[in-house]
Amino acid sequence: MTAVEILCIGRELLTGRTADRNGPWLLRRVTGLGGRVTRLAILDDDPAAIAAEIRTGLARSPAFLLTTGGLGPTADDRTAAALAEALGVPLALDATARRFVAARYAALEKAGAVADAALSSSREKMAWLPVGAEALENPVGAAPAIRCHHPPTTVVALPGVPAEMQACFDAHLASPLAAAAGWPVLLAREVRTDCADESVLAPLLEVVRQEFPDLYVKSRPAAFGRGVRLAVTVSGAGKEAEALAARLEAALARLRGLLQGGATRPPGGG
């Protein structure tokens, strides 16, 4: 059994100001890849409480312990410090993480999203990691994810912004989790649609999810601006590539049929 524990961190989740979107998404994604979630908890931005929860989680020896939130530049982003405390190591400025943060702010400055790319102390804070930890590139945001090995457990701290968390999970966790669960093959297929409205597409995707519960179905914009169109990715894990590919094609065929029966139509193949 590939046991996975999940800690969603943020005071806003406990006050009701923000609904937790990360926990439900991770539950679906982890179980879809063959893992079994044995614990899901929501915690305050309290380093001592986070560290205590991580320590007790490690004592249960899950294959993976995941956290979300608390990796940003503000004073209440304390997950890295809590992780260091739980592992009994100090924080240190990580060169790889610092290069990533610097590159991200340089890109943001070039795009006009920030006034300058200088690494202020608050920005550099995101590059302080527990000693021995590994910085994982964030494909969407500025805060790197963090991976630590505490055999038999792999601890991964993910960003709290849902889009960033999902991108980091898919980039760094989907394949190793599937492999640990005994699924050596991880495949994905994409179809682009003429649909520009997720509210129209959502009920069609739900039909596919219900009929193919072992697969992961996700929509995203395929283009931006006035010509925005939605693409749909269907992915899954399995033991045989040929059988899994056939399963993905069946799901896409079902989606195409649903699209052709409604107001939207895919422009071509998957």
Walk me through what this model shows:
The chain is α/β, with parallel strands linked by helices. The protein folds into two domains: 3-180, Molybdenum Cofactor Biosythetic Enzyme, Chain A (3-Layer(aba) Sandwich); 185-260, TT1725-like (Alpha-Beta Plaits). 41% of the residues lie in helices and 25% in strands. It has ten helices and eleven strands. The strands form three sheets. The protein has a six-stranded mixed β-sheet with strand order 2-1-3-8-7-6, sandwiched between helices. A three-stranded antiparallel β-sheet has the order 9-11-10. It has a two-stranded antiparallel ribbon with strand order 4-5. Strand 7 and strand 8 (153-158) form a beta hairpin. Helix 3 crosses helix 4 (79-87) and helix 9 crosses helix 10. The radius of gyration is 20 Å and the shape is globular. Residues 263-270 have low confidence and may be disordered.
Helix and strand sequence? EHHEHEHEHHEEEEHHEHEEH
Give the overall pLDDT as a whole number: 90
Q: What is the molecular shape?
A: globular
Termini separation? 34 Å
CATH superfamily of the largest domain: MoaB/Mog-like domain
Strand content: 15-25%
Main β sheet profile: 6 strands, mixed
Tell me the Rg in angstroms.
Answer: 20 Å
- Judged by helices, strands and strand pairing, the structural class is alpha/beta
Percent helix, as a range, is 40-55%
Tell me which CATH architecture of the largest domain applies here. Answer: 3-Layer(aba) Sandwich
The parts where pLDDT drops under 50 for at least 5 residues are 263-270
CATH topology of the largest domain: Molybdenum Cofactor Biosythetic Enzyme, Chain A
Give the neighbour order of strands across the main sheet: 2-1-3-8-7-6
How many domain modules?
A: 2
